[in-house]
Amino acid sequence: MLHHCRTVYRVTGTKITSCSRMPTRSRYRHFTNNSSQNQKTIDIDATTGASSIPHSGEKADAKKKPKKMSMKELVNTDGLEWKKMTSGQRVVHSAKTVSYTGVIIFGVVLFSTIMFFLGSELFGSTSASSVFSDALDKIHDSEAVKDLVGDSIKGHGDHSGSRARRSRGINHTITDATATSPRKMYVRFYIEGTKSQGTVHCNMYEDPETGKWEYKTLRVDVPGQGLPSTRLYVVDNRVKTKPKEKKGLFKSLWKSKRQQPQQIESEMDD
């Protein structure tokens, strides 16, 4: 039985030598390595052109240094699993996570603080806006004010025609408590109805027990359109004291003086 043979050449350094003729069906080939340690031996099949590299060459290729990672690859860790990240990528990924978390927490705290102060100013019982809303409700319920100002009464912070000024904060003043008096707040705003317009003055004091603002006076000044202005007290909690009656020669003079219209007190001292 004929065997198909093939020629195998051995390349050692720069020399090419014919090694042997082996059957095609042969599964193993034996060679003697006469090359030095620094030389590489490659077997080339003359029929197919296939080559085989000894294991010593494979070990040399495996000892090559890994490719250095670029800065872009080090920073871009999106989509990578934690197990597949290098130590440097894990450090970068952890730093990014901490920074993002800090920014989110700072934003939440800032938003909560702003909402707290806005809520306290708009809806708090101790704010000027709350006093304005309550006083306007009392004015809507006053028939005396409606007779002078008219229906559909609206309140605003400024009496000018500018809408921007009307929508600004309510004008108010707060004085600190003293040894003889509690905290006081004076609020002024303007109303406008179908007949006329007026100025509202609220004099408040803080209840030491509840901490809420209570009315001392709530009055409305309505201009008389050429006539003397009219002052209406919607709420009047001033302490009224009866003056002592004078006796003697000046008794009649004192009575006539009491019958004369007294001067209106100042806004802050009502």
Automatic annotation (TrEMBL):
Location in or out of the cell: Mitochondrion inner membrane; Mitochondrion membrane
Species of origin: Synchytrium microbalum
Main location: mitochondrion
GO cellular component, one term: TIM23 mitochondrial import inner membrane translocase complex
Stored PANTHER family: MITOCHONDRIAL IMPORT INNER MEMBRANE TRANSLOCASE SUBUNIT TIM21 (PTHR13032)
Lineage: Eukaryota, Fungi, Fungi incertae sedis, Chytridiomycota, Chytridiomycota incertae sedis
Protein role: Essential component of the TIM23 complex, a complex that mediates the translocation of transit peptide-containing proteins across the mitochondrial inner membrane.
Protein name: Mitochondrial import inner membrane translocase subunit Tim21
Recorded superkingdom: Eukaryota
Family classification: Belongs to the TIM21 family.
Record's keyword terms, sorted: Membrane, Mitochondrion, Mitochondrion inner membrane, Protein transport, Transit peptide, Translocation, Transmembrane, Transmembrane helix, Transport
